[in-house]
Structures are given as C-alpha cells and as structure tokens.
Design goal:
The chain is an all-alpha fold and about 110 residues long. It has 4 helices and no strands. The radius of gyration is 17 Å and the shape is elongated. About 10% of the residues are buried.
Length: about 110
C-alpha cells in the first residue's frame, strides 16, 4: 500500500511519506478543533438547533461546511512548517480542480 502511495504521489522517500501523513494528521485534528471556536465566533451553537427536526444533522452539516475551508488553508500552512509546500500545493490544486474549483488555478497562456 505504501509503495502504491509513493508511486501515485511521485515521492521516493519513506521519510517524506511519513511526514506527509503527519501533516495530514495535524491538519485534520487542528481544523476539527478550530471549527468549534469559529462557530462560536459566528454565534452558532448546537443548542440553537435542539428544537428543530433533524437539528443535530443541520448543525453537523454547518460544522463540516466550516471545517472545509479551515482544513484547506491549514493544510498549506502546516505543510510549510514541514517543508512540504510543493507537494501539498500540487495536491491542493488537484483536489480543488476535482471538486469544481479549477477556475482558481487555470494556467495562463501567452
């Protein structure tokens, strides 16, 4: 499995693969932790949805919607600290293209 990832991501070092996993882990944890204070800053609380049918699902969806941009930004920031900016910048551009944000990264033609 690791061999497959190394080939897919075009990396040769096991150390770089470990560092990439660490960056993903830190980013995922940090973005989930930061979402709650951000929701509180926006004055959105889980208790606000208690009296709504499927309110807990709605709150969860709002939280995911908040986590997504936080994760994207943090991924690049954390990658810089681990000297993996190039890998994660390309990874991020590829991912955002796949979900429909490719217009942000169009190549300029002269």
């Amino acid at each position: 499995m690791f061999k497959y990832l190394k080939e897919k991501w075009k990396i040769s070092s096991n150390l770089q693969l470990i560092i990439i996993f660490i960056v993903f882990a830190i980013t995922g944890t940090a973005s989930a932790k930061l979402a709650l204070p951000f929701l509180e800053l926006l004055n959105i609380h889980a208790s606000d949805f208690e009296n709504i049918k499927f309110g807990n699902v709605l709150y969860f969806l709002i939280r995911i919607f908040i986590i997504f941009p936080i994760y994207q930004i943090l991924l690049i920031v954390v990658a810089v600290f681990f000297f993996q900016f190039k890998f994660f910048w390309e990874f991020e551009k590829k991912f955002l293209r796949k979900i429909g944000f490719g217009f942000l990264f169009r190549k300029k033609t002269n």
